[in-house]
Write a structure and sequence with these properties.
245 residues
Amino acid sequence: MYSGASNSTLINLPQGTSVMINCGTSSEKFNSAQRTIIPYLRTAGINYLDLLVINSLDKNEFRSLLYFVNNFEIKKILVPVYYKNVIENKGFAGKFKKTDIEYITAPEVVNKNGNFRLYIYYDSLMAGKSMMSQFVYGDQSFVFSDAAAPEEIVYNTIYLNNLDLNLQAIRVKGSGTFTTTPPDFIAITVPEYIVIGETITGRKKLNSEIFIQTLNELSYNVLNIGREGAVILKTNGDMTRKVNW
C-alpha cells in the first residue's frame, strides 16, 4: 500500500490487481494526477487501474479526477451517488465515457469471495458527500475515512464498532483534526498506524499539530506524509510492516 501526500493511496496486490483510494487534488497551477500520480504509476509499471474508489470530492479533487480519467486507463470507478449530477453534467459527461462508473447508494462489499475484500460504507438515507472504505487482506485491515459531517462520522463509527480484525492503518481526512476524526473513533478502531496528509497553514495547521501531539502522547504511531513525502505499508495478510524508502 503506497499512500502519497495528495490524498491518494495505491493498493497493489500480488496477482497484479491495482486499486486506488482517491486520486489527489489540484490548484490552478498544480494537478497531482498529472504531476505525481500518473508518473508514479507508469514508473511502477502499472498501465491501468482495475478500480478507483472516490470517497469524496471537492472542486479541486474533481479537477484532478478529470485529468486522471482522460490520461490514464481506469476500468471502474466507485463514487457516492451524491456526485452523480456533477459527473453526468453535459459539460463533463464525455470525459467519463471510457470508464465504468458505479454510483454507491448503500453499503456493499467488493470481491467478497476473493483473497481481498473492499468494504464500502455509505448511509443511503442521508446520501451524504462522503463514504468510508475499508480494505481487508487476510486478517489485516486498512480504513480510509473522508467523513466531514458529524452525522457521517457517527455512521462510520457505528460500523467500525463491530470490527473483529486487526486494524493496521487508518488514513484520516486531510492533515488530521479531532473535528473530522473524533477521539472515540480512534479509540474504537485502535489502529497500529494513523496516516495523515499534508498540513495546511493557518488554523488547520494548529488543529493538526494538536491532533498529532495528543495521539503521540497516547502512544499512537502517527505517520505524517507531509513530512515523509509518502508512506509504504506491506502486508502478507498476517502482519503489516512499514517499508523504508
